Structures are given as C-alpha cells and as structure tokens.
Automatic annotation (TrEMBL):
One of the Pfam families matching this protein, by short name: Mutator
Name the UniProt record assigns to this protein: Mutator-like transposase domain-containing protein
Stretches with biased composition (Basic residues): 1-17
Residue ranges, compositional bias (Low complexity): 24-41
Superkingdom of the source species: Eukaryota
InterPro entries given in the database record: Mutator_transp_dom
C-alpha cells in the first residue's frame, strides 16, 4: 500500500487588519438611544425630533389630507411635487387642488456656512465608515427606493470638506486617549501595541496603514500613519 502524504498546512498570513485590535466599545448611554418621547424629560423628545426618518411619500399625502388648506380653508386635497433635488435632499411642494396654494417642505437642513445639505454629508460619511464608497451608497439608495447620492464631482468636493473636519476630530480624539493612558499609568512611560495593514498580499502593496494603541483597560488609538507609493505627499515629491 502506498503511503498517504499529509497535506501541508496552509501558512497563515502575517498581515493583520487594524480591526484585529482588542478594544472595548462600551459607550455611555445617550439620549439618542431612546427614541420614545418621555414626558419626564423634554430634552429626550427634542433629540428624537432632530433625527432623520425615511418616509413613504404616499403617507405624506395621507397626512396632508387630514389638514385644512391655510389659503382656501377647505380640507386639503392635492398633489406632491419635487421642485429641486440635490443627492438625497429634495425640496417638496404640496399643492392644493382647489386654490393651488403650495406648502414647501425641505427634506434636510442646510449645513451652516456651506451650500451642502446635512443628509448628503451624513450619507457620505456613512459610506466611508462602512467602506462601501459612493458606488455602494448608490446601490443602497436603489434598494431603499430613495434618491441617489450626489454626483461624482460634488462627492469629491464633499470629501475634501469632510477631510479637514475629520482630521481635527481625529487629532483631538488621539490627544484625549494619550491623556487617559498617562492618567491611568501615572506615568508618561507608556506600553503600547501596534498593528498595520495593506491592500494586497505580500510586501508589494502600494498603500499601507499603521496605528498605535494604548494598553489601558479601554484601549484606544493614540497615533495613526498612512503611506502610499502613489501619493506625492507620502513620497516627499
């Protein structure tokens, strides 16, 4: 009988994702987690009002039909039209069939000091956080039967707008994490852990990232670095 050769075990990749860090994500309770109005605390209801909802437009018509037209004082009966659209934002008008009086309803607030709509900024930030990008966001919008995201040019411009803000919050978050680690260790001599990742297997990848985490009871990222062989800033050109 011929001897059976054992299959060689597949070597494990030495590459680890940044998400492989052991971390604790227990967050303190916030009023945003409670979506039910509470008479004992009006602030909770205010927080609920400041959230977004996806609403079937047919239900908006049903709501309007239970109101009285402010112009002709008849029970409202009419139609809904979209006068303007910017990505997920729409400017809706409810037009009375009797007197043609129009009630305007913007579906999202305008971001302060900009021409951008808040819903588009939130959607784009969510696309980055989930790693789906604009193409994935577009597919999600199709599945939800809602308007598509903003076009490529405006998406790129919004990325530049978001980057400056994110970098400020990123640095503030890491500074706070360092202070917490120093306070817990009662020393500036900290023990840290590091990790990194790259897009393709092996060491031929053109893009890579690395980070350093504290080793406190609640480990947090205290420094990050990215590098790209195709980025003029990274290679010092």
């Amino acid at each position: 009988m011929g001897s059976k050769s054992k299959a060689k075990p597949r070597p494990r990749s030495r590459k680890r994702l940044v998400s492989s860090f052991r971390r604790t994500t227990t967050l303190p309770p916030t009023t945003l987690n409670n979506t039910e109005p509470n008479d004992n605390n009006s602030g909770k209801n205010d927080d609920y009002i400041n959230t977004n909802s996806i609403i079937d437009k047919a239900n908006l018509i049903n709501l309007m039909e239970n109101t009285i037209c402010i112009n002709c004082h008849k029970q409202w009966l009419g139609s809904i039209q979209c006068r303007k659209r910017e990505g997920l934002y729409e400017s809706l008008e409810f037009i009375c069939s009797y007197c043609e009086h129009a009630v305007k309803l913007p579906t999202s607030k305008q971001q302060t000091m900009t021409q951008r709509r808040e819903i588009n900024i939130r959607a784009q930030l969510g696309a980055h956080l989930t790693g789906i990008g604009r193409s994935g966001l577009e597919k999600l919008c199709v599945a939800l039967n809602i308007p598509p995201p903003i076009d490529e040019d405006h998406y790129t411009a919004t990325d530049a707008y978001l980057l400056d803000i994110i970098q400020i919050h990123q640095q503030n978050s890491m500074d706070l994490a360092v202070k917490e680690a120093v306070q817990e260790a009662s020393s500036t001599n900290l023990t840290v852990s590091g990790d990194g990742s790259w897009i393709t297997r092996g060491h031929s990848s053109a893009h890579g990232i690395a980070d350093i985490c504290s080793t406190t009871q609640r480990p947090k990222v205290i420094d990050v670095e990215r590098s790209s062989k195709e980025c003029s800033q990274c290679i010092g050109a």
